[in-house]
Amino acid sequence: MGVSGNNEVLVTTKVVVDYDRASELKAFDDTQDGVMGLTDAGVTKIPLIFHNPKNSHHDESDDGSGSTQLSVPSIDLVGVAEDPATRKVVVEKIRQACETWGFFQVVNHGIPLSVLEEMKSGVNRFYEQDSEVKRELYTRDPLRPLVYNSNFDLFTSPAANWRDTFYCFMAPHPPKPEDLPSVCRDILLEYAKEVKKLGSVLFELLSEALELNPNYLNDIGCNEGLTLVCHCYPACPEPELTLGATKHTDNDFITVLLQDHIGGLQVLHENRWVDVSPVPGALVINIGDLLQLITNDKFKSVEHRVVANRVGPRVSVASFFSTSLQPSTKLYGPIKDLVSEDNPPKYRETTVQGYVSYSLGRGLDGTSPLPHFRIKDF
């Protein structure tokens, strides 16, 4: 290495020495104002804690060919409850989507458009509250009835994401209404009820796609738990340096996502990032790690991310079907009807709590927790 190379090493070392990441993270968290506080303050350069180690929009998973030629499957659920022929076609489309994409969008899903729009409005109202009001709810205690903070993995992830989040556990133990913010209380309760109904329908269709009894996944408790996770992705002055959400998989059975018109969600498909473009009135469904585990890899939990955007704030509501950190002794492993001598179990049994605790402890580090639960022979 020449002189210039040595100089580069020295400069790099100096930057690392001068930058106390732990102190910066604590200072950001102590404001209790989140990313929204930075945008409200008019920042034009994003703090170093948000700089993604890799070039965020073009990492090792990109092949340079772009994502415009592909689109996530869209499935129309109209008539699935009334017409057996329609249901059979829908089940086959869902099977193909779960085996190849791990993602699909549904239209005519039964949740009124007015409820979807009010849910997005409710999330916006929450984040538009005065800072003093939101600070009262800011917490790092994951089991509070409502948790609001910026980056659940702020102190463990390689880079902070450009987003704020609030979430609440809506099932199996719903919160007291008074524990929810008044600006979105009613719609949180109504939306949770509607999504729970849709979840039961989706688990029936997924069961049939696995050639199981329609009630199978509901009967084993896949629809027992529900968490509403409400994200806000403020406008970012330097979106090329960070991400709204790092590449990850979801640690649940399925996720039902409501996103607004701005977009930014991308799914990794055939080694390229594909935009999950917003469709008015549609909901995005994706397979979670726990469903991949119990289907013994038949259905795929696929990596996805959210890119940062100069436009914002973008809001989304991810409904996680999982009992999450709720105490439970129920074990989940590969479904016996799906394994055989030729297709032996690939995963060891785990509780939902055990899986989620392991996943959350690692943060969004760009890799899936599933290999940790894989039987060594695979």
UniProtKB/TrEMBL annotation:
Residues 222-324 form the Fe2OG dioxygenase domain. Pfam families: 2OG-FeII_Oxy, DIOX_N. The keyword Protein biosynthesis does not apply. Its cofactor is Fe cation. The keyword Metal-binding applies. Signal peptide: none annotated. Keywords: Iron, Metal-binding, Oxidoreductase. Transmembrane segments: none annotated. Gene3D superfamilies: B-lactam Antibiotic, Isopenicillin N Synthase, Chain. Residues 50-69 are annotated as: Disordered. PANTHER family: OS03G0690500 PROTEIN, OXIDOREDUCTASE, 2OG-FE II OXYGENASE FAMILY PROTEIN. Belongs to the iron/ascorbate-dependent oxidoreductase family. This is Fe2OG dioxygenase domain-containing protein.
